[in-house]
Hints:
- The two termini are 24 Å apart.
- The chain has 107 residues and is of the alpha/beta class.
- It has one domain: Glutaredoxin, CATH 3.40.30.10.
- Helices cover 39% and strands 26% of the residues.
- It has a five-stranded mixed beta sheet with strand order 1-3-2-4-5, with helices on both faces.
Amino acid sequence: MSDVVVIDDSCFEAEVLQATEPVLAYFWAPWCGPCRLVSPSVEAIATEYSERLKVFKFEVDPNPEAVKHCKVEGVPALRLFKAGEVVAESEGAITKSMLKTFIDKNL
């Protein structure tokens, strides 16, 4: 079972903004080629960091509120939250090692 949880706008505030632990929000779209490249890395990171980080996946088109709140302009996009605030962000395809660096630097 994946450690990545798919949620939507209705859960965004409770699961992301009110979370007591760090949260990685991953924004994607089914029509996005680079998202297909990044998704396996996000899945692996979710498993590897499961004790220290929650990972949530948002499809951009049906979740305009989360997209707007996080100022997502392109996908794939990542937002790392601590105490309800974005502390790091990334847009565009990144490798698993770049993703690990992104998280380690900001956790």
